[in-house]
Amino acid sequence: MDITIRPIDKINSVITVPGDKSISHRAVMFGSIAQGDTEISGFLTGDDCMSTISCFKKLGIDIEVKGENVVVHGKGLHGLTAPTELLDVGNSGTTIRLISGLLSGQTFDCRLNGDASIQKRPMNRVIKPLSQMGAKIASTNDGYAPLAITGAKLKGIEYHMPVASAQVKSSILLASLYAEGETVVIEDMPSRDHTEIMLNYFGADIINENGRITSHPVKELYGRPLTVPGDISSAAFFIAAALLTPDSEITVTNVGINKTRTGIIDAFLEMGADIKVINERLAGGELVGDLVVKTSKLKAITLGGDIIPRMIDEIPVFVVAALAAEGTTVVKDAQELKVKESNRIATMIEELGKMGAKITETDDGMIIEGGQKLTGGTTYSHLDHRVAMSVAVAALNAKGDTTITDADCVGISFPNFYELLNSLR
Ligand code: S3P
């Protein structure tokens, strides 16, 4: 499907965005290995989370989906059963990396694969630590999916993370539930901690002492009701849209504002953005709030260091904002962008380039001259949901219309994205 986005005059809206993708995946996975029912509300029914549901159904778990309400009938830590077919993770890196850890300690074997993009995403980052734990996990494609896992007995390890990655950390922590002895993961820079929060909510014993995360095995996990907050990664597109569009104000209600995820808000505030967080509250151990955002004159900043993992998925839309800011923005320490659903350094430079933007690529990021006024253009999503949505935000304040080809990939994380965007008009 192709989509054409017209420029917008102003935005004045109160919206909610779909449930958090990271939390929705985890609710299904952890609910499946907990005893009893986990009733989830606010679940993200995007394609990635539906891939997770499909994998756990193949592992013998009964899961009822009624729109955003999902009930997982968990069978306890040792209740999964051998799948009779390949587990297809679709486009979801979170599914394949987390499930690899979880399946390494089972008593059965399985095979995992996904789409063409998944087959280009590095899996050695989980194969290495899991193998150290005793897992029998092999790639039949030189470090990429497909993966074959043979059930094995695991032992705890101490693992110093070479890259900040919540997916790798979570994979190890899930394996730790099946390992003998304690497992320690050491993080130099904090990555999202939804796994630690939710596993503990279900009865696990995981503590984080200044980046040293220790998991002690427990006998069982217990299912509990869970409310998934709105995804800050999805809210970010509308936050940027309101900041960049003249005379605008948007309120995004019920957004997850866990501090391991709010790098984008901190970055925009440093640029001079008018963003207020109101109604802060806790739900299922996660901090939630409403965001009130007004049109702002933004100044360039240098983005690097430990803010990067706290906003890794929001950097594409941050780049759109930097093009409108005053001064030169530098994005550094962001090599991880190269191994997302697409190489997001290359694809963002290429697609915004079709709208007239000039951005310089560097080894670990990019240099963005501010004050660039974009024209419309015909762009391509690269089948990457966040590239499509970032280009759509850029299109709102471009001079002409912008077409995005293969635009339906937004269904991965934000199925009603274009409808919500149109509702702003
Ligand atoms: C995710 C972690 C991040 C992020 C991805 C979701 C998660 O990946 O980019 O969209 O749910 O754990 P890395 O941890 O590999 O950086």
Topology overview:
Elements: E1 3-5, E2 12-16, H1 21-32, E3 35-41, H2 47-58, E4 62-66, E5 69-75, E6 87-88, H3 93-104, E7 110-113, H4 124-132, E8 136-141, E9 144-150, E10 154-155, E11 158-160, H5 166-176, E12 179-180, E13 183-186, H6 194-201, E14 205-209, E15 212-216, E16 226-227, H7 232-244, E17 249-256, H8 263-270, E18 274-283, E19 286-294, E20 302-303, H9 315-324, E21 328-331, H10 344-353, E22 359-362, E23 365-369, E24 377-380, H11 385-396, E25 402-405, H12 417-423
Parallel strand pairs: 2-17, 3-16, 6-7, 10-12, 11-13, 20-21, 24-25
Antiparallel strand pairs: 1-25, 3-5, 4-5, 7-9, 8-9, 13-15, 14-15, 17-19, 18-19, 21-23, 22-23
Helix pairs in contact: 1-2, 1-6, 3-5, 4-5, 7-9, 7-11, 9-11, 10-11
The structure holds shikimate-3-phosphate (S3P).
Shikimate-3-phosphate is lined by residues 22, 94, 165-167, 170, 191-192, 312-313, 336.
Describe the fold and architecture.
The protein is α/β, with parallel strands linked by helices and 425 residues long. It has 2 domains: 3-19 and 229-423, Enolpyruvate transferase domain (UDP-n-acetylglucosamine1-carboxyvinyl-transferase, Chain); 21-227, Enolpyruvate transferase domain (UDP-n-acetylglucosamine1-carboxyvinyl-transferase, Chain, Alpha-beta prism), CATH 3.65.10. The chain is built from 12 helices and 25 strands. Strands 2-17-19-18 form a 4-stranded mixed sheet. The protein has a 4-stranded mixed sheet with strand order 4-5-3-16, covered by helices on one side. Strand 14 and strand 15 form a beta hairpin. Helix 1 (21-32) packs parallel to helix 6. Bound molecules: shikimate-3-phosphate (S3P). The site of shikimate-3-phosphate (S3P) has 11 residues, from helix 5.
